[in-house]
Amino acid sequence: MSDKKIRVLMSKPGIDGHWRGGIVVSRALRDAGMEIIFGGFQNVKEIVESAIHEDVDVIGLSIHSGAHLAYTQQIIDLLKERGVFNDVLILVGGVIPAQDFPKLKEIGVANVYGPGTMVSDIVEFIKEKIKK
Amino acid sequence: MFDEEYLKKIREKKEEWDKKFENAKERNLKFVTDSEIPIKRLYTPLDVKGNYLEKINFPGVPPYTRGVYPTMYRGRVWTMRLFSGHGTPEETNKRWKFLYENGETGFSAAVDALTFNGIDPTNPDGAPEVGTSGVPLYCIDSLFALTEDIPIDKVSVALVVEPFTSAPVCAMYFNMAKMRGYDISSLIGTTQNDILTMTVGYIPYKNVAPNHLLRLACDFIEWTVPMKNVPRWHPINFTGYNYREGGIDAVQELAFVFASACSHIDNLVERGWKADDFVNRLAFHLAAHKDFFEEIAKYRAARRIWATLMKDRYNVQKPHSMEFRFHVQTAGSSLTAQTPKVNIIRTAIQALEANLGGCQSLHTNSYDEAICLPSEEAALIALRTQQVISEETRITNTVDPLAGSYFIEWLTDEVEDKVWKYIDKIEKVGSIDKALSTGFLYKEMRDAFHKRRARIEKGEEIFLGVNKYPEPYDTCTDVFRTNEAAIQIEVERIKKLKARRDNAKLETIFDKLRTICEKEENVMPLIMEATKEGATVGEICGIYREIWGIWEPPLAI
Questions:
Q1: Domain range for A110
Q2: Strands laid side by side in the B189-191 sheet
Q3: CB of A32 closer than 8 Å to CB of A127
Q4: Segment B388-400, tens digit of pLDDT
Q5: What is the ipTM of this complex?
Q6: Is the residue at A78 inside a domain?
Q7: Which residue in chain A is spatially nearest to B86 when comparing CA positions?
Q8: Strand partners, A62
Q9: Structure confidence by residue, pLDDT tens digits, B507-529
């Protein structure tokens, strides 16, 4: 299935409206040949539901509210409950202190992208982790 | 500006000079401003066009290019106003007092995402964000706690809420002031009330459509200023800063705010008011970004454009109606999470732009901006940055010190010219609500995001520590964490309020508000009544949603 595209759900958990990061990364992934499902604002349940229905390989969470630990934990808990946690790569980006990167990785996030990230690094990481 | 004979002589000499140094070495760079205005090697009297008295003139008189006051900072230094809020109203009050004791001269409330979007903390969708990005202001009790022991009759307070929630939040503030015994007709302060902030600056979460937001913004302007309920209040602060942070340039920033301001004035004129009745209280909030001279030229051009717009388009009679007053915020998006102490230097330089450009009020960012909400230490350094400029540098000695620089006058003209053209581009789409609902402004924003991102990736725009001399993320800065108990505290606050209020009386007021919303009449009188009786911001916004429906912004990747 080498011609199958990598599918990415880009979502903003919660209600904070900083939208640039999610859009910039989505465009870069699309330009790199991936399929983007732009979820916009979604609550925890909606994120997990769309990830399952859209059969995505990657969930990108764009969080600028400071509530990244709470939301990410809730999403991962629900993914595990639904038995799909191992099927997806979870990436988190936003204004996230480097001190929190290890905590996020501990709970199951594959990588974290703080301010000033070069989007090419995200593309490379996904392509390396997901071989289609 | 100069005598023809004199210019002729200079032109001859300039040609000689050009020829002589034709092959002088220049680095292989694009010499352009941030908004891509090409910059020449040298500026001379040949570049300064027009008549001094018409185009530049003296400060305190139209077209106000040099400043809105005749003495500027010799008379009064700009207001040092740090945008601040976190955790709970009580904790924010403590921070405000700390800054006030250290010389801050104005307050500005940064609210959380729930307050911005009219969501009560009992709603699970937003609950983890209570107090994480600003202060929660969900009901009148929060306003009492926020301003406890603060002399709100002497120090101006900026309430940074947008049209969707400006009526309930500010009505709570006005009611609180009245209950404290203040006469609100002499109250000073500002409401941001900017339609573009929560539409293209940030995306709105379950807000209403732009035509309703525009009307809500104008309801608030009408009720405070021309109807004279709070006539000294600045009922709107057109906030170019917030969309500039998204990636647009200085020219677009000004054009967005002027196109928006005109739509608001048109709305109020349609309601029967004259521009002279209220335009003097309209205020602006601009960015101080990375391009030092272009930003200074931007502030000078903005004053001239506004004076021209008011005079030519709205035929104002009072000179005060042509004065462009503005607050500045240094550029958060120019700061890095790598080597964050370098942010202190960036912020100081940007603050200087604002002061050399004649701002009325200034927020300086904290060096931990790209990491977390400001710690007390970081906020204090940000305040001290302004104080170094005002107390130690003597730049306040004279008014508009850069005027007459061949380069600055030329660049002011260039920026002005480009802004007029861009205003036309927006107005061709229609009024500002149309520019939103058609998706036009979203596409402009999106294109700006991508253009800037490409510039950064190619190294054409430098971020030290990121794309030049890269450094790992800083892990030494103390991360300021907001109070995790805020959610329980706020839920409890609302529970107590609901237990003591007269719910039956409130239901009657809500029904009247529904009717007013259906008829599209001014919502302020009823929201004043409702919030006095204990209505929450979420309940008022719930009525807006119920009557007008929820709007999804036309985002494009």
A1: 7-129
A2: B189-191, B157-160, B106-110, B79-84, B361-363, B326-330, B283-288, B237-238
A3: yes
A4: 999 999 999 999 9
A5: 0.93
A6: yes
A7: A66
A8: A93
A9: 999 999 999 999 999 999 999 99
* Number of structural domains in chain A: 1
Q: β-strand A7-13 against A35-42: which pairing, if any?
A: parallel
The fold for domain B52-457 equals TIM Barrel (3.20.20)
Q: Give the Cα separation of B229 and B82 in Å (integer).
A: 27
Sign of the alpha-carbon torsion through B158, B163, B167, B168: negative
Contact B535, B420 (CB under 8 A): no
Residue A2 is predicted with a pLDDT of 52
Distance from CA of A1 to the nearest CA of B (A): 27
The residue ranges of every structural domain in chain B are 52-457
Q: Supply B175's token pair.
A: 């009611």
pLDDT, tens digit, for every residue of B52-65?
999 999 999 999 99
Tell me, yes or no, whether A1 lies in a domain.
Answer: no
CA atoms within 13 A on the CB side of B127: 13
Check whether A132 has a pLDDT greater than 80.
no
Q: What pLDDT was estimated at residue B556?
A: 80
On whether any CB of chain A is under 8 Å from the CB of B76, the answer is: no
State the SS3 of B329-391. EECHHHCCCECCCHHHHHHHHHHHHHHHCCCCEEECCCCCCCCCCCCHHHHHHHHHHHHHHHH
Residues 249-288 of B with CB under 8 A from A: none
Report the relative pairing of strands B237-238 and B189-191 from DSSP bridges. Answer: unpaired
pLDDT > 90 in chain B, percent: 98
Q: What is the CATH number of the domain that holds A35?
A: 3.40.50.280
Cβ within 8 Å, pair A71-B555: no
Would you say residue A2 lies in a domain?
Answer: no
Our CA-based measurement puts residue B449 at a distance from the nearest CA of chain A, in whole angstroms, of: 7
Chain A interface includes B495 (CB < 8 A): no
Note which residues in 453-472 of chain B have CB less than 8 A from chain A.
453, 456-457, 463, 465-467, 472
d(CA A8, CA A6): 7
d(CA B302, CA B416) in angstroms, rounded, equals 7
Tokens 């102490």 locate to B341
Cis peptide before B63 (omega within 30 of 0): yes
